[in-house]
Amino acid sequence: MSIVPKETVEVIAQSIGINSLSTDAALALAPDVEYRMREIMQEGIKCMHHSKRTTLTTDDIDSALSMRNVEPLYGFASGDPLRFKRALGHKDLFYLDDKEVDFKEVIEAPLPKAPLDTSLFCHWLAIEGVQPAIPENAPYEVIASLPETKKPEQKSDELPVDIRLPVKHVLSRELQLYFNKITELAVSMSDSILFKEALGSLATDSGIHPLVPYFTLFIEDEVSRGLNDFQLLFALMRLVWGLLQNPHIHVEPYLHQLMPSVVTCILAKKLGKRIADNHWELRDFAANLVAHICKSRFGHNYTSLQTRLTTTLLKPFLDPKRSLPQHYGAVQGLAALGPHVVRLRILPNLETNLGILEEILRDNKKKEMTRHEAWRVYGALLVCLFLQNNHVLMCMWCIPASLN
């Protein structure tokens, strides 16, 4: 016997306009309705278990209907309690009073506001007392439109609340002109005497701290877009050197933006587009910048900085598929970090690398440019070996004679 009574089938038939359903037909349909209900419930329970839940939800039933190629139920969930009504002519039969909605009315009605899930994310309100210009912080127009803040009237049972407006980053006209002039010189007049004087001002001026985030962003953007412009890249690295030399500004909060640009000028496959561009000198200069950042400025504050940088430089050094200029940059970068890095990272792989370079130099079929690049890397490795041997000799010379 079905748990679905025939009266339920008759009421459902009446709700869809079938008023002449016979009792035999209702008795025959009731077991099939029960079977379909059990089938949907079992599929819904499977979806619940796969979702790692112990409570069956309406989403599980919708998924079960979708798996059975049945059109899902449409509508919005209501937080109100369910209201059952007694069916006419039946004492023990109740049904939900669901109002029928015309699709035309639903389509023409304005869309409701979508519910928003609660989420959290972090952003900088201020860095070194300066508010960054990001979408999360209120713009100046919003701040200017606010009336003068007055302390709100506090009730006796509430804690006092101090309302403060967000900080606005305002650059003076002089600082804007200063920034525009230096960036213009770096892009178009990097060989001029005026640019050298600008670098001197950048390394000594005590009032340019508000421009540090703008300079770092400018360097990052121009390096990523101007790898074919050798003069621009060298001018940008000189700007980095000027910022690092200035004792009155704090470059540390923006180090994560400067380091990728400097490392790019060491390990890039190609720097400049002309044969006459001396990209070897640029790689040497950038390697000295990296060593200055790690050993003289920020290595004592960030103990993992040199380790991470060494790992980054070691990957192209050990990869034979990388180009020879990349190998040269990796060798120069590792050598600039000191004899300890040379002893632990370069010397164990020195014989293999020298063997590969000697094969290139012996092969007369190689292009002259390739042989020239191989000579550069070969010379850099020999310099590393020479400096390491001199370091060992100096350490032995410093030991007192009584201990030898």
Entry keywords:
404 residues, mainly alpha, Histone, subunit A, Serine Threonine Protein Phosphatase 5, Tetratricopeptide repeat, 2 domains, two-stranded antiparallel sheet, 57% helix, 1% strand, elongated, disordered C terminus, transcription coactivator activity, TAF_TATA-bd_Histone-like_dom, RNA polymerase II general transcription initiation factor activity
What does this entry look like structurally?
The chain has 404 residues and is mostly helical. It is elongated, with a radius of gyration of 37 Å. Strand 1 (84-86) and strand 2 (94-96) form a beta hairpin. The chain has 2 domains: 6-108, Histone, subunit A, CATH 1.10.20.10; 175-388, TAF6, C-terminal HEAT repeat domain (Serine Threonine Protein Phosphatase 5, Tetratricopeptide repeat, Alpha Horseshoe). Helix content is 57%, strand content 1%. Helix 12 packs antiparallel against helix 13 and helix 13 (324-336) packs parallel to helix 16. The chain has a two-stranded antiparallel sheet. The chain has helices at residues 6-15, 23-50, 58-67, 103-108, 140-145, 173-188, 193-204, 212-225, 230-245, 255-267, 279-297, 305-318, 324-336, 339-346, 350-362, 368-398, and strands at 84-86, 94-96. The chain has 16 helices and 2 strands.
